[in-house]
Amino acid sequence: MSKRITIPLLFACVALFLASCQSKQSASDLQKTLEENPQILTEVMKKNPQLFMETLQKMASQMREKALEDRNKKEQEILEAAFKDPIEVEKHSEDLIIGNPNAKVVIYEYSDFQCPFCYRALETVKQVLDEYKDDVAFVYRHLPIDSIHPNARLAAKYYEAIRIEYGQKAFDFHETILKNQNKIRHGEKYFLSLIKEMKLDIGKIKELVNSKRVENKIAADVASANKLGFSGTPGFVVAGVPVKGAYPYSHFKMILDRRLNGNSKDPASEMAAKIK
Question: Residue 243's beta-bridge partner residues?
Fold first, then answer.
């Protein structure tokens, strides 16, 4: 056994040692003793296997709960900071706007066509647009993760080519391939068959796919995502508030309602203050 032991294991074994030996040593003395005589740990484990496992499991659970608590606290801090000082997303002349172009709030999504979580996000976005009508507009941007999704960038190129030539039909293409992600592995063959089904001009689309215009738009989207701190997908900016991941509709609703109601403060905090 190594002379060095991990902190969680050390504390677990300290608990077992105290329970079995009734030691009155200080924590520091006990730690030193265990580090100098690691064989003690082996003996304790052998004599108390069930207690050892229960202690480890309890500590692991406590550590997970603490990590989750810390993460939630950090996310809440970021959320409140964004309500007070909304994130500015640089506009692009070639963004395709879904919904009312004069909407009160805009949702930007940075996505990867082969990301399974992005399909889940699609359903949330559709629900938001259906519920909030003209109050919300949606802009889809690209963040292909080339290292794990080899056909995501090519899908993005076809999306942009369709957008340039046919506008809103690009979003139909977007929705269809997200719902059929298993077919994206076939690459261009699948995209061309879908374009044919959509009755679009294959020649024009193929000409645009490898154009500088398409390449520059995708590069601008990726640069925008990097600037905003998004490295994974999906990433959203909802009315100036960052959302990293495929959060449920309720999370989007909470942000949109606060923003549309002109309330930058956390309703829960306000209620707690009133009760006091």
Answer: 236
Q: Determine the structural domain holding residue 232 and report its residue range.
A: 97-260
Nearest partner of 149 among 175, 118, 183, 185, judged by Cα: 185
Please identify, among 84, 105, 138, the residue that sits at the C-terminal boundary of a domain: 84
pLDDT tens digit sequence for 157-196:
999 999 999 999 999 999 999 999 999 999 999 999 999 9
- Measuring CA to CA, which residue among 111, 112, 106 is closest to residue 92? 106
- Whether the link from the prior residue into 234 is cis, omega within 30° of 0, is yes
Contact 38, 3 (CB under 8 A): yes
Q: How many domains does the chain have?
A: 2
pTM: 0.71
242 bridge partner residues: 237
Verify that 40 and 145 share a domain, yes or no: no
Q: Are the CB atoms for 60 and 102 separated by under 8 Å?
A: no
Residue 272 belongs to a domain: no
